Automatic annotation (TrEMBL):
UniProt function note: Exhibits S-adenosyl-L-methionine-dependent methyltransferase activity.
Source organism: Amycolatopsis decaplanina DSM 44594
SUPFAM superfamilies found in the cross-reference section: S-adenosyl-L-methionine-dependent methyltransferases (SSF53335)
Highest classification ranks of the organism: Bacteria, Bacillati, Actinomycetota, Actinomycetes, Pseudonocardiales
Name assigned to this protein: S-adenosyl-L-methionine-dependent methyltransferase
Swiss-Prot/TrEMBL GO biological process terms: methylation
């Protein structure tokens, strides 16, 4: 791909995933193509009825692992959001929201819960411009840098209630942060209402420090670095529980990529779609209610 932001790239993958012929494998984000900008034109072709399936097939051929990873990530985080609001969460926080469309496409699951989208100022402004292409929603857009700003203060000013049960989605963000940025956010989350949930994805620390040489991972690292958005942070494989315990958080699940593939990309006949980025996983954490 030419040099575009990672937020646009993952949205393009979601859009392509929503066009896959196998219903059970499709990405559920049917609004992804609508929120993509019209530039550059080649990628914007996925917005055009006569061309969208051609673009989708091209992405499936050339960037299959990224496309299927995004399908899995979307489905997993959608599931945590749905279960959390069904379980009484009255606030939804999207950290590093990018071009996320959940506030628009999951209105039934979200119900009356308040939705807060937090992102860097320039990205938040772009999202608000693009969101006019989507159905109305009650999103509160908040500008913040997770490594520089006080997240609690930013949310408080936006009307967030730390005493209310909340679900926080942190999609495609942690690898780009420094250690302190991740720790600061986890410390903030640990102070939220008991029973609140946090879900995020991560890469293995081993691919960042060179202990694991995985060609597919190295290609992704080179790609994001070429965009000026290098990966900086990861969790050592199998050590997510230790990270959360240090912040007094409970691990609900640490789902590795390979197992997520089996869970979300298995056809009715038992065959599993792939390939997928497998050098990381998904963490679902909760604030203890004990």
């Amino acid at each position: 791909m030419s040099k575009i932001s990672t937020a646009e790239s993952v949205t393009l993958f979601r859009a392509a995933g929503a066009l896959q012929p196998e219903r059970e494998l499709r990405n559920p984000d049917l609004y992804a193509s609508r929120i993509l900008p019209w530039w550059p034109p080649l990628r914007a072709s996925i917005k055009i009825p006569g061309l969208r399936h051609v673009v989708s097939r091209a992405i499936r051929r050339k960037w299959a692992a990224g496309l299927w990873y995004e399908v899995v990530r979307t489905k997993y985080m959608d599931g945590v959001l749905s279960a959390s609001t069904a379980g009484g969460a009255t606030q939804v926080v999207l950290l590093g929201a990018g071009f996320d469309t959940r506030a628009h496409r999951m209105r039934q699951e979200i119900g009356t819960a308040s939705v807060f989208e937090v992102d860097q100022p320039h990205m938040s402004a772009r999202k608000q411009q693009r969101a006019c292409a989507l159905p109305d929603s009650r999103v509160r857009y908040l500008a913040a840098d997770l490594e520089e700003d006080d997240l609690a203060e930013v949310l408080h000013k936006g009307g967030y209630d730390p005493s209310a049960k909340t679900v926080v989605l942190w999609s495609g963000v942690t690898p780009y942060l420094r250690q302190e940025g991740v720790d600061t956010t986890l410390r903030w989350f640990a102070q939220q209402a008991p029973g609140s949930s946090l879900v995020f994805d991560y890469c293995w620390r081993e691919i960042l420090d060179g202990r694991a040489e995985i060609p597919q991972a190295q290609a992704v690292l080179r790609d994001v670095a070429s965009r000026g958005e290098p990966w900086r942070w990861g969790i050592q494989r199998g050590r997510a529980n230790e990270l959360l315990a240090a912040h007094r958080l409970e691990l609900v699940e640490d789902l590795e990529g390979a197992e997520a593939q089996r869970r979300y990309l298995t056809r009715a006949d038992g065959s599993v779609q792939g390939p997928i980025w497998f050098f990381g996983g998904f963490v679902h954490a909760q604030v203890s209610d004990r």
